[in-house]
Amino acid sequence: MERTDLVKLQPAKFVSVKDLSPGTHGHNLFVKVVSCNVVLEHVRPDGTKVKVAEAVLGDNTGSVVFTARNEQIGFVEVPGRTVVIRNAKIDMFKGYMRLAVDKWGKVEFAAEPATFEVNTAHNLSQIEYELVTVPETVAEA
Question: How far apart are CA 122 and CA 10, in angstroms?
Answer without folding.
Answer: 31
